[in-house]
């Protein structure tokens, strides 16, 4: 028995009171508990992939990603559906079948365009209906004047980063507060995760390893191994992202016009759509054209872009499709593999750079070094404009320093200064000077300036760019080989290959051997070799050592990119930007 406030209670009475209290507590409706479980319970298939809102009138289906999203903003600046379309680069949507407008694919009434960012509506003058039309060209066509539509009333379907509320209902404030709360940062991570795992959910972001941050770069490093261990993963992350981006860029159903070039190689001409395509081609890009139609067996060909938007492809077959061709952009892995190789060389090869540059690059405190050299009496180089006082000071200082940086805004004569520095370095007779820049355009401009000084200049370009014309094509290694009079056998084989398109296996083997010999001879006898930073990792330069290296526009390159030329034995490095 138990003593209670009203006297002694028997054990049975205690049990009855406990049971009644438990029943009363169970009947209480706690709003917080309901809200906590409302969006953690099993949701329908059409629930918003971000927040879980599943009102059929509020959600939209993305035709590309096969996911549903609501028209509510939540904690973001735009609606969830618009956020997804922008981040995932999708454009086509469908309304829910149980919504006010039924299962409707949003498309232009006139041309069938489904890009929702181009779609808008025009109210009909007589009827209480609206017509969906794309901005260009349908909404601006003069023929609309003959129809019962007022083109001046055209309005976009997406305004203020949301679909219009009469088209897709905006969830109420209470619904959005009760929904799963998701931040813009979580949305970014989830979109990235979907690229690898389309079925991933918000809960997967909490798994270990998903959100691991790479190590931050340092101002000072203990040694080259720590330098490699920090920059190596960063290069890999960039390579993985670039690969994912390149391989996602495809274009279907393009029309191709074929022609035969003077070198007996097939040339494909085609035009990419300007509005619906995210593909951006550049000269030298490697692409694959593929045909999967019913008119012929499966066909594909690989080539390089020689002129935007045209491409050159190499084929040895008789069938060349014209229509229904798919285009795939290939990912060039060699720039990143060359950066990784340079980082490894820097770590393991003590002869890759001088001791001074090694410690300076790692941020160590090193006493300044003055290089003893014979300074010219006149600093202005032959064939170049006269230098002003600041340019003369820059050239004089750089020639006496093992590591230097020249900075200046555009138009201050950095290119002329660079060419002058290279001219005086080449005149010192310490072997070829390696001149690099992150872009081919910058390399070509500097090559042209250096050539004006009368030095023997060789422009080394990637084999994929040998068919691309430039102002300094006559200085390119492959073109200089064609004009070598000292190797008549190579000239004959080259002429035969140009006329027939190919050589026998024996002739091809001999041709390659002679070409390698000619390349080595030209490179060893050059005063200056010009290439991109990544191009400095070309196998043709692998066995060469460069005492003097100049990197133009260095501030536009990444640090591992600049390391590719630096590890070729640099004892003097000049950077400009």
Kindly summarize this structure in a few lines:
With 577 residues, the protein is an alpha+beta fold. It contains 15 helices and 23 strands.
What Rg do the Cα atoms give? 34 Å
CATH architecture of the largest domain: 3-Layer(aba) Sandwich
Strand content: 15-25%
Overall SS class: alpha+beta
Number of E strands: 23
Roughly how much helix do the residues carry, as a percent range? 25-40%
What is the class of the largest domain in the CATH system?
Alpha Beta
Descriptors:
single chain, alpha+beta, Elongation Factor Tu (Ef-tu), domain 3, 7-stranded antiparallel beta sheet, 32% helix, disordered N terminus
Description:
The chain has 577 residues and is α+β, with helices and mostly antiparallel strands. It is built from 15 helices and 23 strands. The strands form 6 sheets. A 7-stranded antiparallel beta sheet has the order 11-17-14-15-16-13-12, with no helix packed on it. Helix 6 (224-247) runs antiparallel to helix 7 and helix 9 packs parallel to helix 10 (414-427).
């Amino acid at each position: 028995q138990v003593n209670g406030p009203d006297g002694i209670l028997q054990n049975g009475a205690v049990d009855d009171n406990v049971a009644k209290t438990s029943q009363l507590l169970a009947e209480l409706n706690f709003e917080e508990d309901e809200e906590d479980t409302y969006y953690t319970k099993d949701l329908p298939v059409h629930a918003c992939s971000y927040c879980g809102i599943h009102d059929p009138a509020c959600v939209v289906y993305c035709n590309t990603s096969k996911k549903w999203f609501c028209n509510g903003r939540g904690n973001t600046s735009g609606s969830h559906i618009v956020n997804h379309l922008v981040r995932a680069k999708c454009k086509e949507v469908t309304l829910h079948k149980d919504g006010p407008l039924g299962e409707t694919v949003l498309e232009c009434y006139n041309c069938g365009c489904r890009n929702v960012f181009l779609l808008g509506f025009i109210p009909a003058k007589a009827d209480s209906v609206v017509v969906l039309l794309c901005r260009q060209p349908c909404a601006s066509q003069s023929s609309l004047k003959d129809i019962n539509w007022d083109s001046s009333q055209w309005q976009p379907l997406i305004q203020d980063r949301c679909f219009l509320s009469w088209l897709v209902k905006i969830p109420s404030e209470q619904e959005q507060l009760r929904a799963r709360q998701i931040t813009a940062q979580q949305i970014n991570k989830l979109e990235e995760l979907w690229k690898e795992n389309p079925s991933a959910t918000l809960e997967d972001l909490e798994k270990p390893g998903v959100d691991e941050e790479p190590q931050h770069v340092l101002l000072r490093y203990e040694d080259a191994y720590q330098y490699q261990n920090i920059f190596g993963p960063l290069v890999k992350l960039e390579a993985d992202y670039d690969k994912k981006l390149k391989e996602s860029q495809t274009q279907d159903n393009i029309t191709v016009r074929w022609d035969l070039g003077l070198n007996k190689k097939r040339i494909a001409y085609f035009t990419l759509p300007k509005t619906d395509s995210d593909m951006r081609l550049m000269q030298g890009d490697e692409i694959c054209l593929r045909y999967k139609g019913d008119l012929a067996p499966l066909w594909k060909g690989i080539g390089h872009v020689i002129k935007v938007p045209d491409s050159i492809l190499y084929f040895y077959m008789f069938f060349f499709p014209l229509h229904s061709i798919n285009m795939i952009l290939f990912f060039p892995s060699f720039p990143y593999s060359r950066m990784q190789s340079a980082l490894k060389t820097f770590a393991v090869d003590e002869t890759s750079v001088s001791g001074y540059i090694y410690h300076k690059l790692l941020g160590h405190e090193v006493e300044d070094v003055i290089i003893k050299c014979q300074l010219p009496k006149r600093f202005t180089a032959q064939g170049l404009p006269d230098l002003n006082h600041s340019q003369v000071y820059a050239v004089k200082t750089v020639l006496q320093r093992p590591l230097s940086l020249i900075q200046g805004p555009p138009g201050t004569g950095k290119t002329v200064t660079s060419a002058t520095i290279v001219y005086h370095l080449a005149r010192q007779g310490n072997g070829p000077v390696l001149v690099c820049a992150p872009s081919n355009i910058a390399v070509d401009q500097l090559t042209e300036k250096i050539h004006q000084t009368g030095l023997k200049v060789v422009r080394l370009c990637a084999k994929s760019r040998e068919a691309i014309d430039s102002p300094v094509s006559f200085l390119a290694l492959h073109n200089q080989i064609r004009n070598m009079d000292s190797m008549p056998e190579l000239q004959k084989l080259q002429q035969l290959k140009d006329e027939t398109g190919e050589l026998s296996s024996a002739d091809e083997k001999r041709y390659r051997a002679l070409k390698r010999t000619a390349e080595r001879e030209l490179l060893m006898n050059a005063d200056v070799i010009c290439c991109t930073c990544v191009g400095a990792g070309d196998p043709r330069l692998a066995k060469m050592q460069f005492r003097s290296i100049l990197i133009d526009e260095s501030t536009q390159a990444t640090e591992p990119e600049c390391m590719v030329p630096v590890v070729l034995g640099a004892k003097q490095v000049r950077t400009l930007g």
